Amino acid sequence: MLTELNVFFRRIYKIYTKFKRGMNMSEEVGRPEDDITEITLSSEFDDDAHLKPEHINIAYVQEQKFKGVRRTFKIFNDSQLHYTLESFRHKDNKKHRVNLSYVNIQPERECFVAWSWLSTAFATIVWSMLLFYIGLYTQYKADYIVIVAVLLGTFSMVSMLIFYYRTQDKLIYSSFIGKIPLFEVSNHKSGNKEFDLFMLKLRQHIKASQDRMTMHQRLVGELKDLRRIRDEGKISNEQYESARDIIFKHEAFQSRQGE
User: Fold this and answer.
1) Of 65, 74, 145, 200, which sits with the fewest C-beta atoms within 10 Å of its C-beta?
2) pLDDT digits (tens, 9 = 90+) for 69-114
């Protein structure tokens, strides 16, 4: 009964918050400091029901317009990450909170290069240039040869676009013990100041959050955080159960259970 009342009042608060923000049309929107209410824990299954976003440490946005992907990161309260993934093409939108205390500081790099489309692009552009030469400057010159060359050149450009679209280079952050993927960052070469700063701050906050906890606290906390994320529908029940089995078998968890 108390749980149902808590859910009810939280939903009323959300409606009130949206109504209040809608009435204040003169406020500037879009800046990280303006939408701080959006990173309240919107799940009714949240274990940390009283957690409030007191301040944002850093906000970072990655947008790949051609691929139709936008990632938004907000680190707040020193140890929390609000992550949003919007895929305009596939409508694959994700929005959830992650406690950085339970994140592996070393991400896994997932790099896929669509070599077949790149090789196709180079092959067709070579054939296109050869046919242009034959169709314009040799004894075999003919309009239909030039037309074929144009078509091959067009196909070459399309192949290059597909190569770029399908090539992926991501850093995937997973839970520390259970190894469950939690969020991803599009990888950039060093030298991108905004990216380098965000990655530095992310590592610092993960390390600082974990240093304040014992291994047993991290194990129990990770299990609770994964259960919340599962109940929000962001990870599957199979992923949660797999992580739970790993955590239960961990030496630090077993030692405390025997006390």
Assistant:
1) 65
2) 899 999 999 999 999 998 876 666 788 899 999 999 999 999 999 9
Q: What distance in Å separates the CA atoms of residue 245 and residue 135, rounded to the nearest whole number?
A: 68
User: Sheet containing 80-87: which strands, arranged edge to edge?
Assistant: 56-64, 69-76, 80-87, 94-99
Tokens of 117: 């489309």
What is the pLDDT at residue 37? 44
CB 27 within 8 A of CB 34: yes
**Phi, psi at 202, each rounded to 5°:** -60, -45
Residues 6+ apart with CB under 8 A from 146: 131, 132, 135, 136
pTM: 0.71
Spatial distance between the Cα atoms of 55 and 77, rounded to a whole number of angstroms:
6
The pLDDT, as a whole number, for residue 176 is 93
Domain range summary for the chain, segments of one domain joined by +: 2-15+37-113+167-257, 115-164
The pLDDT assigned to 142 comes to: 82
155 within 8 A of 148, measured Cβ to Cβ: no
- For residue 202, give the 3-state DSSP assignment: helix
Closest listed residue to residue 229, CA positions, set 94, 128, 27, 112: 94
Give the span between the Cα atoms of 207 and 101, in whole angstroms.
Answer: 8
- Report d(CA 37, CA 41) in Å as an integer: 9
Two structure tokens written together for 49? 């029901």
For 47-78, write each residue's pLDDT tens digit: 454 567 889 999 999 988 878 889 999 999 99
